[in-house]
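Slide 14.
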Amino acid sequence: MTEFGSVRDEHLGWYGVDGGCEVTEFVSVRDVVFGYRNGLAETTNTGELIIKHRAEEKPVDIASVVSAIEVSETYYYDDFGRFCVANEEAKIKIKQVLAKYYTLNLFDDYGDLEWPSHKLASIAGDHCSLEAVQQWISFGWPEDKLPDFDGCHEQWKEKNGMAGKPIPLVQSPSSRSHVWALAGKLLETTIGKKAYEAVLRGDYGLAIRALQKHGLGADESTKRTLRNNLTEIVGKAPL
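Slide 15: predicted structure.
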């Protein structure tokens, strides 16, 4: 495990220890996946520290990010705040978090899955837990050492015999699938027949109040997601 003589400010990025001179910006896995970049810190002639905001970057897909983690040198802050080169054991932590997010996002057809932050409600379990958020923001790269994500993914495909092969799409279950019948029955059992019938009429109030008792629909964003999910389930479940 390699340790560097640097410290990190949670808001301003990665800095050297030689009196506050900026070495380079630290770009976390969360920044890469969601296209976010921290503002650049600069010192004026009068010694005042100012932050220059930057435009967002194009998000990088999960497959390419994971490929880069596997085949390139990746960095992270360990449990004691030390800045290190990630070994294979450390990489497993962030890969598990990304696998969780990818699995949830597969069936989030409306794009409402929130980015990881413990200040936001999550639509599913430990996606936004404090531990998961720590992994999202602790792993990444100094900006001047960002890998070629597309190139890393091509390298992974070459190594695993997938170069040039078509990738089949993962789709949600067909409307004819028995999965929707099961989902409909489970939903009716959870929210009650009256609320289920109300959803069929386009009235979501009873259903959302019932689901809130199970920790869902705590804010407007997750309520919107629930309405979309309810519409899909009752629309595809056989009557």
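Speaker note: Residues 88-106 form the longest helix (19 residues).
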